[in-house]
Amino acid sequence: MLSALCFAVGVSADDRASVIVERLAAAVKSLGSYEAAFTVRVGDYSGDGRYAVSGRGYNLSLGDVEVFCDGAVRREVNRALREITVDNVDTAARNILSDPVGAFDFIGDDFSAELVSENDGTAVVSLTPKSGGIHGGVIEVTVDVRTFYPQRLVYRLDGDAVTVDVRKLASSSVPLKTFDPKSFDGYEIIDFR
């Protein structure tokens, strides 16, 4: 039915997928500073998390882990292990858990977009890295085509899948929580920079 609809209006399914991806990126960008709540599932694990984005910076928490990023340096605090991992930000990552700032920016030459389905106001787009890509794996994005907000992301790599359900996405005027070393006295620091 989707193919017939696209053919009837003169739009290919791949063109429609590209339009959806562009509108998704624009919708998230239009939020400015924003916050999100999500549920992640991988194997038998399921956990709720949240993140906030402001400019190139973000703060993300999931279970015992909290990440503070100023746009250049990422500090991952693991409260259970009492350690802090410090590294440069991988701005090429398109994974919501690695760098939520760029998680929805699939525009450009890095991905091929294919429309998997579109029904009842929801579209599923499969994104495959071009030419071996920068991080490999396929990303499947479910988008509400009324708002163009993401509903679900599934990251598939080497037979494994990580599913992230986005439960909330909204603009926020709350200042971004930043890293305060005094809050983590006695934590081991592992610096990969």
Task: Report on this structure.
The structure is a single chain. Helices cover 13% and strands 47% of the residues. It contains 2 helices and 12 strands. The longest helix has 18 residues.
Q: In total, how many beta strands? A: 12
Coarse shape: globular
Quote the average pLDDT: 89
Strand order of the largest sheet: 7-8-9-10-11-1-2-3-4-5-6-12
The parts where pLDDT drops under 50 for at least 5 residues are 1-8
Name the structural class: mainly beta
Largest sheet: 12 strands, mixed
Helical amount: 10-25%
Number of helices: 2
User: How do the SSEs run, as a string of H and E?
Assistant: HHEEEEEEEEEEEE
Q: Please give the radius of gyration in angstroms.
A: 18 Å
| Span of the ends, CA to CA | 51 Å
Strand percentage lies at: over 45%
Give me some keywords for this one.
193 residues, mainly beta, twelve-stranded mixed sheet, 2 helices, 12 strands, 13% helix
Fold blueprint:
Blueprint: H1 2-8, H2 13-30, E1 34-42, E2 45-54, E3 57-62, E4 65-69, E5 73-78, E6 83-88, E7 111-119, E8 122-129, E9 138-144, E10 149-157, E11 160-171, E12 188-191
